[in-house]
């Protein structure tokens, strides 16, 4: 059932026949309902569906990072931050041939911006946790010593993301991440980005792969 908001000549919200009315970013939108097809799906379509499922599974737990990291890139395009991140990563962060598609971690991005990025990102297991380090110097864009570093650590063993917001400032050059359990046996992927100390700029994210520790 649809509801007219401003009388019979106004916009509507809900389903009417084969169309649906809804509001997107303050704009009244009407779209047609998808039609079911009896044709067998092509390999290209199956590959596209697998790619979408794969990238959605990785990005969905990172919505808070993506809202922060893709916000400024998405606004001029009149897109949501998540939809832009989904589009970018579906094109750039998947490798292999169907049905053996996989994440291309070096090209996975949870942020896009002009702030100086995380240069020379490294990570290693220590007795205290995961020690992450980066170069302090600012050479590839605007930045400040007090820019804040946020990180997301993916445990391949658990298929789980550990978030660390505002873990350090740029000028510290390193930080040690820890959780309640011993996770040195994990293979991990670390994705990191800087947010300006004023909160109005972000960097492109960087990635480093960490092998399981002893």
Blueprint of the fold:
Elements: E1 3-4, E2 12-16, E3 19-24, E4 27-32, H1 43-59, H2 63-69, H3 71-74, H4 81-92, E5 94-95, E6 102-103, E7 122-126, E8 129-133, E9 148-155, E10 160-169, E11 174-177, E12 188-195, E13 206-210
Antiparallel strand pairs: 1-2, 2-3, 3-4, 5-6, 7-8, 8-11, 9-10, 9-12, 12-13
Helix pairs in contact: 1-4
Protein name: DUF6266 family protein
Pfam families: DUF6266 (PF19781)
InterPro entries: DUF6266 (IPR046233)
Q: Count of DSSP E strands? A: 13
Order of neighbouring strands in the sheet with most strands:
1-2-3-4
Overall 3D form: globular
Computed CA radius of gyration, to the nearest angstrom: 21 Å
CATH H level of the largest domain: which superfamily?
Immunoglobulins
Largest sheet: 4 strands, antiparallel
Give the helix tally: 4
Organism: Parapedobacter deserti
Pfam families: DUF6266 (PF19781)
Protein name: DUF6266 family protein
Descriptive report:
The chain is an alpha+beta fold. It folds into 2 domains: about 40-110, no CATH class; about 115-214, Immunoglobulins (Immunoglobulin-like, Sandwich). About 20% of the residues lie in helices and about 30% in strands. The chain has helices spanning about 45-60, 65-70, 70-75, 80-90; strands at about 5, 10-15, 20-25, 25-30, 95, 100-105, 120-125, 130-135, 150-155, 160-170, 175, 190-195, 205-210. Strands 1-2-3-4 form a 4-stranded antiparallel beta sheet, with no helix packed on it. A hairpin with a 2-residue loop joins β3 (about 20-25) and β4 (about 25-30). The longest helix has 17 residues, at about 45-60. The radius of gyration is 21 Å and the shape is globular. About 25% of the residues are buried.
């Amino acid at each position: 059932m649809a509801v007219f908001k401003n009388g019979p000549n106004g916009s509507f919200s809900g389903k009417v026949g084969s169309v649906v009315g809804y509001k997107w970013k303050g704009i009244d939108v009407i779209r047609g309902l998808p039609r079911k097809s009896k044709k067998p799906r092509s390999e290209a379509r199956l590959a596209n569906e697998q790619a979408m499922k794969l990238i959605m599974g990785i990005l969905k737990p990172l919505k808070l990072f993506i809202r922060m990291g893709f916000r400024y890139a998405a606004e001029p395009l009149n897109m949501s931050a998540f939809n832009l991140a989904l589009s970018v990563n579906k094109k750039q962060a998947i490798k292999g041939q169907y049905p053996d598609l996989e994440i291309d971690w070096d090209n996975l991005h949870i942020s896009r911006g002009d702030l100086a990025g995380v240069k020379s990102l490294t990570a290693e297991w220590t007795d205290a946790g995961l020690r992450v380090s980066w170069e302090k110097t600012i050479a590839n864009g605007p930045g400040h010593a007090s820019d804040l570093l946020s990180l997301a650590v993916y445990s391949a063993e658990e298929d789980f993301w550990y978030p660390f917001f505002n873990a350090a400032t740029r000028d510290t050059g390193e930080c040690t991440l820890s959780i309640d359990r011993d996770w040195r046996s994990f293979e991990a992927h670390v994705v990191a980005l800087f947010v300006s100390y004023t909160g109005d700029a972000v960097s492109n994210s960087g990635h480093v792969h960490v092998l399981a520790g002893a």
